[in-house]
Write a structure and sequence with these properties.
Layout (H helix, E strand, L loop, with lengths): L6 H11 L22 E4 L3 E8 L11 E9 L1 H11 L4 E8 L2 H13 L2 E8 L6 E7 L5 E5 L9 H8 L5 E4 L12 H4 L3 E6 L6 H7 L2 E4 L16 H9 L5 E5 L5 E5 L2 E5 L12 H14 L4 H14 L13 H10 L3 E2 L1
Parallel strand pairs: 1-4, 1-8, 2-6, 4-5, 8-9, 9-10, 10-11
Antiparallel strand pairs: 2-3, 6-7, 11-12, 12-13, 13-14
Helix pairs in contact: 1-3, 2-3, 2-8, 8-9, 9-10
Length: 341
Amino acid sequence: MRIPLNPLEKKQLLIIHSLHSLGKPGEFSGEAALKQRPDVLVVGRCCVDYIAVVDTFPKEDTKAPLAFRIIEGGGQGGTASSCIAKLGGKTLYVGRLGNDAEGRFCLQRLKDFGVDTSLVNLVDGGTTPVAYIFVTQSSGKRTIIYERNALPRLKITDINSALSHRPRVLLLDPETTYLAKRLKPKTVGDARIVYDCERWREGMEAIMAAADFFIPSSLFLDSEQLGFETLGFAEKMFSLKARIKGELIVTRGLKGAFYISDDALFHVPAPKVPVKDTTGAGDNFHAAFALALARGLDIHETVRFSVAVASLSCREYGGRNGIPENQEATQLAATLKKSRL
């Protein structure tokens, strides 16, 4: 029996099928020039998320019924850009998409959120990556099977060109780690660099030395390359802080975020919100963090705002559907308390 589409999915599929007339292969889309300085320049991955919601996650070699499914734009860079725009920030996104239905869907979704896509390149003959995400209704947890990005890598010249627009903050996602060793202070200017750290990659040492704000999840602290296996969590935090140039902020899921300021370890717990899907929570944390910096908030205010945005984004299915308005996020952030550990 064919599973009926929900209203959101019908709208999304109509967008996909209507996108063949947008743009020209290999050309940049949108306006060529920015009218004002961007708050955040986001560089990184954009893809299509196919999200399947199930009651319980099945064991291997078994069957399970599908509750429903949705299609949404995904990828760390794409979701972060959408989040910043939803929060009222001016976002410039740099990335590559295939000149295919999936790529045009991703492009349209960025535009729907108000992201400046003038530096998005549609690659003729390229294939836009996708991810298959299984969300368990009983827990809100997600399992992601992602397609590796086969599009041509961004070059440092792409970043340098975008930096000429003088963004206040440069947000780099994990796929851009290899570019860190070629970033030049003169080109970056006064933009502060925020790095979304996922796992150890090519160029990690360089980005550790370049980023003003290094933001991994707690899983990164267990990386074999760091050699922290015998240390406790706080010891891992201070040991990693000693190896990076900038500030260290570590996300820890439902436990919130931890960070070091003035040689002290602080914690901002996650608020209690109804959790449907944690897809994109980390991406939205990094987005909110970058925007808060661009707005001039201090480290304590910035972490509280980021925890609030990430938590609220888990209320709906998909990484973007639950992103809050700025006022709601700001009000929740004001209720969160930091504690010195």
